[in-house]
Structure of Maltokinase:
Amino acid sequence: MSRIRAEQQDGFYDVLRNWLHNQPWFPRVQGRWKLHRAGGMRLPTPEGDRDAQLTLELHLFDVEHQDGRERISVPVALRSRPSAHVGKNVLIGKLGGDRDQEIWIYDGTRDRAFLAAWLELARREQGTRNGRIHGRAWAGFAEREPFTTWLTRSAVDDGDQFSSRALVAPPGVDAQAHASQKVLVDFSRILTHERPEAVETALTLSSSGGSSISPVLGAVTVADPIRGVSDLALIREGSVEAHSALKLLRSQLRIAPDQRRGEVRSPAPQETSSAETSDEDATAGVAEEHLVDEKAVETLHQLGESLARFHYDLATSFGAHPQTNDQIREAAAALSTDLQKTWDAARPAFTDEDATRLDGVISEMAQHIDDVDRALVLQRIHGSLTLEHFHEQGAPGQWIIDERDGVVDHAPALWDVVSVMLSLAHVVSTVDGSDAGARFTTLCSSFLEGYRHAGLAEDVPQGVMFRAVLLKRALETYPGYGREWIFRFTETD
């Protein structure tokens, strides 16, 4: 039997237009729009599918509208009968009125046969005859066992509004296995010849052997003589879809006090001379004894080490340099001004007692900021890091960081440290109990200890600049929400 060609079927474009218009990634166009086919390819049918007429195609379309043109990628699977393994939510539409001539069109990014063929395209580094579409494999991906339709696809949220994501368990890997044993495929829906910085970061860190992110295993690209090269898909290890640190910590900290096991007491403050006093000493513990789950303390230590490794990988891959004298002065002046403005806006939300105390703290900080002469190291960082960006890699204590939603250049690493601490503050504030401040101090101490203990970062979060940034961000994030213990954490030098 001859295989189907989508563009030759009556009604194909009508069905496709109706489906496209309802997809979250489709360009938000005003008025009329037209589809112009700009290219594509037919993929070999992988082993294991019983539909003899199965056809797997990638279509590239230009969407023409009143504001211009945008190129989109539409993978499809054409079947002669409905597929029980795909599901109705993946159905694009049906063509033909007679039962013997029905053609069922499915979204290829959710079809097992298309996913297997697509992964094989990258694993075998194959492509079109004219060389425009080409698959690439890295990090031992080419040596893996072939992908067949016996793989398992897990439902996951799309990577972002311009892509579609699928998590694939290769043949022989149980669907319930840890995400690190699976493969993540991010299909680009809106094509651009400029890679997002986050994607470029992932590719660079993977090629340099960095262990702090989910490694890139392969890619499929398309070349255009006018538009240049665009990514059709990136293939990664699936760890980024594993449980996040946020979810784990919530479970570790929601244990009732009388049901805890393996608890530890918070460390007592260490005695040091005034010359040796640092933020590490300030956050080493609190006077009153309290109980914190041992597993949560250990998790925070691991996250600190993981963040230090991430910053190290970024610094070695993209470079790092200390601030110049002019940059030191400019950064100090800007922070002092911003801190005061932030406090002026937040002050009405505090009690008179707390406001008076913070008046003194901020005034003293401003004096010390003006005297700062220590150069911070500037490098590429994440910039929007939270506990949700940390994911279990499989082995106990091993975490990777999801680099999406981030990438800031020429910034101090302490920004990421502060972002994680504020994310932790939110978790702590939702836990039952009256010892939130003591718990926060202990967990932050473990996190900072892990970061410093790793010995990888060129700079460590300490000093008045660190405390001032933390206080400013805390005032911006939690004004008037009854979390005064966050602000007390920043007061001791």
